[in-house]
């Protein structure tokens, strides 16, 4: 093999080995040392990141991509499955970014989870999640992708329910698993269709063999899978509930990596979707609805982590919109830049939460730009990047998406909703910054405010560099597959910036109202709609379980017995014969007229029958 | 051990309190399993005592042939609805020891159905949610009917509409194509 190819593939497989080694060590019965988390787990991820930079630089300089098929798993007459990794444009750029973000989060977690007696297990779970995510991202066939898919789902369950003594955390973990399972129905449907019609789960083979087939059904399955995993409207309630888990879990899983798995699946399968207008329109409309709805919910939340969670959901909706525009690469770019600033926002909120003795309500924070200046600055930088401030990371991807949206032939309502959601992003971002960092403190004087720990500062610093320069670096080094439309009227070019500034000004206006006696309460109806998350958890999480559990209980304990012992046996006979008996006895009351009528009728019938 | 069980069975049968197949079951000491729907005040009092409820609170489930026996009808409230600040015997379950369990207790645990009062009434919630979704679907339909796009024109090519490139003969004089107007 050519030495470059050898170096490329072996460094990527070495990266997997480096990540798996600490996990395999935990399967022996030897006790781990107390700082296994920082000495082994974090170091492994840091080394894996540095190793993954080598193939990245090879890819950026030569455009090299590789598919490595390591081991034949099973071979049947129609389908064969191999352990096959695809290191192409998407996975080669995503893997170093995911490892960089994970490295920062693990370092932060050594501080955040310091008082947890099971910190080593926590890091083991995070590492297992990371390995599953990398398997998902680098999978060259749907079976391997499914392994990674389920792996990240299970680790999400274990990590959300980390504090399993808390009933709400268990409920949230259960929610995550159930909603993901509903999405998995779609994925398995798609896989089954492809296996039976295209006879392959290999990505390259599927693309070639499905050229002339009508792919609507499997694409709907894949879109359902993305709806479940990436929290699109309809299957979204698990993402805000997932904030019950510790902040490093929220930062890693529910902002940067796991939730983008659904979008990543659609990006991988985008050649199948290119020519199917139904699927594209569905993605566009679903994404627009998601981004708008979750941004509306984020406006009135008071828990800092919930606001960031809804912000994540809104950005995922935006990525879905981009896929609906037939621009998978722009969606991928947004995944990469979003990872940086969203993880940083979560780490800043974690720093704030710990500093205020586990206070998560923004109404009880304030004035932190004096007390925790570094955290506040990073929070501000992250929020600016999120809103698409020119030349920060989010700008390159978000502005490209909005420009593509404005210059395409799109559903006008989807366009409107996306622009409204972009302005809402600015509103709730300013709301967070206003309540958390500005003004005077609204918390108790004796709070353990301490951000002077390198385990906090270094990750935030690294992610801040990523949030500022990440977009620029990625955009400078890649080639866009689809030529972007570069000429458009000034209104369209500046649309994203204009709506964000509009949102910012609105939020500033609303913020000044807090010190004026303007109106006592907000408009009740939309406020309730937004605070209660559109009433979806209230209705769906009560109605459906109640119906199914009640029905199940009734069938199992009452209905089966009652049916077979009473209703089909004795009572059935009684219910069948009683009307007959009463009808017969009603006829025979002793009335001569009835008897004569019957006699006449019988005579007529006999005459008619004998005449024919 | 088996001998002890046998002796208990013989004693129960000889006492003659319970008839039928129930007499053969070892757990069948004075009314441990479900008995019949209570008819008179004595049976109601005995049932209330058995289930550890006051006689005023005891209300049997209606006898529709479903076989509930004398099990009480407890209010349909979930565990989540109970006071989180009260010092329960089992704080995670929000339940006291020996408290009567609802027939659908497994439905009303904190991980499942929640009957806590909502901010707005149920009908309002349903109307608003389904109205919102219906409105969005209708607007998406309208947006599909009237899409947003930039004005476009047919593609224009130079060199007399690419006469030579399109396989036109170099000898034939191509017709003049003007793609502009001054």
Task: Please provide a brief summary of the model.
Chain A has helices at 3-25, 36-62, 89-112, 119-137, 142-160, 167-197, 203-209, 216-229, 238-241, 247-256, 260-268, 270-273, 277-298, 304-324, 328-355, 368-371, 373-387, 393-407, 412-437, 454-477, 490-493, 495-512, 524-531, 536-567, 570-587, 592-611, and strands at residues 66-75, 80-87. Chain A is an all-alpha fold.
Could you please describe the fold and organization of this structure?
The complex is a heterodimer of chains A (612) and B (182). With 612 residues, chain A is mostly helical. Chain A has one domain. Helices cover 73% and strands 3% of the residues of chain A. Chain A contains 26 helices and two strands. In chain A, strands 1-2 form a two-stranded antiparallel ribbon. In chain A, helix 17 packs antiparallel against helix 19 and helix 18 packs across helix 20. Chain B is an all-alpha fold. Chain B has four helices and no strands. Chain B is rod-shaped. The N and C termini of chain B lie far apart (113 Å). The chains are: A mainly alpha (612), B mainly alpha (182). At the A-B interface, helix 6, helix 13, helix 19, helix 23 and helix 24 of A face helix 3 of B.
| pLDDT < 50 stretches of chain A | none
Characterize the largest beta sheet of chain B: strand count, sense, and whether it forms a barrel: none
**Based on DSSP secondary structure assignment, what is the total number of beta strands of chain B?**
0
Could you tell me how far the N terminus lies from the C terminus of chain B, measured between alpha carbons in angstroms?
A: 113 Å
The largest sheet of chain A has its strands arranged as 1-2
For the biggest sheet of chain A, the summary is:
2 strands, antiparallel
How many DSSP E strands of chain A?
2
Helices and strands of chain B, in order, run as HHHH
Strand content of chain A: under 5%
**What percent of residues of chain B are in strands?**
under 5%
- What is the alpha-carbon Rg of chain A in Å? 30 Å
Domains of chain A, number: 1
Organism (chain B): Gadus morhua (Atlantic cod)
Region (Disordered) (chain B): 64-84
Protein name (chain B): NADH:ubiquinone oxidoreductase subunit B8
Keywords (chain A): Electron transport, Membrane, Mitochondrion, Mitochondrion inner membrane, NAD, Respiratory chain, Translocase, Transmembrane, Transmembrane helix, Transport, Ubiquinone
């Amino acid at each position: 093999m050519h030495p470059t190819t050898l170096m490329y593939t072996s460094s990527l497989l070495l990266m997997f080995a480096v990540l798996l080694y600490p996990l395999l060590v935990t399967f022996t019965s030897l006790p781990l040392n107390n700082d296994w988390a920082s000495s082994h787990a974090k170091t492994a991820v840091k080394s894996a990141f540095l190793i993954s930079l080598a193939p990245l630089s090879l890819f950026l300089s030569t455009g090299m991509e590789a598919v490595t098929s390591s081991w034949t798993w099973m071979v049947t007459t129609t389908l064969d499955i191999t352990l096959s990794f695809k290191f192409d444009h998407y996975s080669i750029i995503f893997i170093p970014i995911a490892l960089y973000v994970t490295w920062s989060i693990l370092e932060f977690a050594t501080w955040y989870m310091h008082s947890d007696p099971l910190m080593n297990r926590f890091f083991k779970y995070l590492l297992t999640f990371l390995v599953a995510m990398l398997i998902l991202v680098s999978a060259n066939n749907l079976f391997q992708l499914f392994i990674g898919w389920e792996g990240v789902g299970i680790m999400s369950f274990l990590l959300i329910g980390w504090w399993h003594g808390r009933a709400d955390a268990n409920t949230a973990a259960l929610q995550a698993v159930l909603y993901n399972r509903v999405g998995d129905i779609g994925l398995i449907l798609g896989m089954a269709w492809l296996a039976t019609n295209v006879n392959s789960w290999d990505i390259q083979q599927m693309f070639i063999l499905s050229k002339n087939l009508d792919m609507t059904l499997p694409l709907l399955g894949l879109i359902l899978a993305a709806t479940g995993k990436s929290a699109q409207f309809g299957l979204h309630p698990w993402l805000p509930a997932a904030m019950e888990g510790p902040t490093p879990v929220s930062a890693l899983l529910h902002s940067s990596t796991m939730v983008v798995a659904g979008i990543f699946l659609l990006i991988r399968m985008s050649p199948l979707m290119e020519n199917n207008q139904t699927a594209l329109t569905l993605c566009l409309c679903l994404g627009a609805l998601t981004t708008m709805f979750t941004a509306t919910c984020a406006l009135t939340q008071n828990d800092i982590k919930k606001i960031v969670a809804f912000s994540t959901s809104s950005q995922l909706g935006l990525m879905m919109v981009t896929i609906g525009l037939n621009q998978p690469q722009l969606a991928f770019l947004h995944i990469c830049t979003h990872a940086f600033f969203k993880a940083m926002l979560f780490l800043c909120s974690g720093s704030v939460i710990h500093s205020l003795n586990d206070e998560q309500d923004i109404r009880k924070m304030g004035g932190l730009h004096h007390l925790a200046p570094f955290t506040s600055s990073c929070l501000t930088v992250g929020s600016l990047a999120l809103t698409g401030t020119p030349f920060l990371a989010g700008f390159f991807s978000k502005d490209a998406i909005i420009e593509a949206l404005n210059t395409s032939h799109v559903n006008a309502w989807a366009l409107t909703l996306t622009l409204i959601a972009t302005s809402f992003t600015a509103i709730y971002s300013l709301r967070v910054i206003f309540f958390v960092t500005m003004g005077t403190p609204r918390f108790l004087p004796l709070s353990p405010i301490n951000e002077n720990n390198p385990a906090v500062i270094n990750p935030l610093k690294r992610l801040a560099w990523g949030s500022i320069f990440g977009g620029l670096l990625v955009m400078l080094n890649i080639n866009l597959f689809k030529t972007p439309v570069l000429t458009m009227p000034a209104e369209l070019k500046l649309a994203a910036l204009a709506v964000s500034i509009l949102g910012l000004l609105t939020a500033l206006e609303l913020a000044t109202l807090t010190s004026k006696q303007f109106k006592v309460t907000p408009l009740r109806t939309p406020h309730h709609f937004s605070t209660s998350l559109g009433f979806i958890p209230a209705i769906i999480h009560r109605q459906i379980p109640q119906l199914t559990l009640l029905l199940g209980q009734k069938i199992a304990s009452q209905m089966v017995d009652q049916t077979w012992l009473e209703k089909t046996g004795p009572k059935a006979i009684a219910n069948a014969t009683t009307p007959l008996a009463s009808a017969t006895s009603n006829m025979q009351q002793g009335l001569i007229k009835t008897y004569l009528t019957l006699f006449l009728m019988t005579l007529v019938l006999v005459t008619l029958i004998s005449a024919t | 051990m088996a001998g002890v069980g046998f002796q208990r069975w013989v004693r129960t049968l000889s006492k003659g309190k319970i008839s039928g197949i129930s007499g053969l079951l070892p757990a069948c000491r004075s009314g441990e399993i479900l008995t019949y729907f209570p008819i008179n005040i004595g049976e109601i009092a005995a049932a209330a005592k058995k289930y550890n409820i006051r006689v005023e609170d005891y209300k049997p489930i209606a006898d529709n042939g479903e076989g509930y026996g004398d099990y009480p009808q407890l209010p349909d409230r979930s565990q989540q609805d109970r006071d989180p600040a009260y010092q329960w015997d089992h704080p995670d379950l929000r339940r006291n020891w020996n408290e009567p369990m609802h027939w659908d207790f497994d439905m009303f645990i904190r991980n499942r159905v929640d009957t806590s009062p909502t901010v707005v009434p149920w009908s309002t919630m349903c109307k608003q949610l389904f109205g919102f979704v219906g409105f969005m679907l209708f607007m998406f339909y309208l947006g599909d009917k009237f899409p947003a796009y930039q004005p476009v024109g047919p593609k224009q090519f130079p060199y007399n509409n690419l006469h030579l490139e399109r396989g036109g003969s170099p000898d034939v004089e191509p017709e003049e194509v003007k793609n502009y107007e001054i």
